[in-house]
Amino acid sequence: MKKAMLFILALLFSVGANAATLSLKTFQSTNASQKVDVASGSVVLGSGLATPAKGETWKSQFDLNSDTTTPVKVTWTFNPDNALASGWIKFKSAPDAFKTFFVSKVASFSFITTLYANQLSLLNFESATGQALNYTVSVSAVPVPAALFLFGPVLLGFLGLRKKQALAA
Question: What's the rounded mean pLDDT across residues 70-94?
């Protein structure tokens, strides 16, 4: 029973050990409307409607922040999935240089990067071409295995208990 209680206690601590709070704000857009659906938390969401005229491009830019340095997964999704002809995803988080990805005829695109504590990060979709489409951007904190720091002492404790029981027998 004691082992189960220690395991559950370690699990509870590991779940909350890396709870980064992200915040998302709209910055600017061209030929697209944009909004923030979930502005703060471990997952933030933005969305919009791109309505470029024939031959024109569209762009959408968001500002992103985190209270702690943390890895994040960024996912852009486009609907209908065949409406995006091409575009550039650009991400900047100081002190890193811009990360740039060219996407063409995809339904979604994801990448993992690092947000630095209290540094403004730029999340842009630029020079996009294609038909009118809805888009969403999701940014979620990727949990770092902080549980290793908490499970390590617990595992050593289990080994110590096992050794103690073996010596007592």
Answer: 90
Strands of the 58-66 sheet, one edge to the other: 40-41, 22-30, 58-66, 121-130, 84-93, 99-104
Q: Which helix (H) or strand (E) is 3 found in, with range?
A: helix 2-16
The larger pLDDT score, comparing residue 49 to residue 167, is at 49
CA-CA distance, 22 to 13, in Å (whole number)? 20
DSSP string computed for 123-154: EEEEEEEES-EEEEEEEEEPPP-THHHHHHHH
Give 22-37 pLDDT, tens digit per residue: 999 999 999 999 999 9
Residue 91 structure tokens: 């991400």
Dihedral of CA atoms 118, 98, 52, 139 in degrees, nearest 10, equals -40
Adjacent-strand bridge partners of 74: 111, 139
Look up residue 70 and give its two tokens.
Answer: 């943390």
Query: CA 84 to CA 73: how far, in whole Å?
Result: 21
CB-CB contact of 76 with 136 (8 Å)? yes
Can you give the pLDDT at residue 141? 87
* Sign of the Cα pseudo-torsion (20, 65, 39, 32, in order): negative
Q: Which amino acid is at 135?
A: Y
Amino acid at site 15 = V
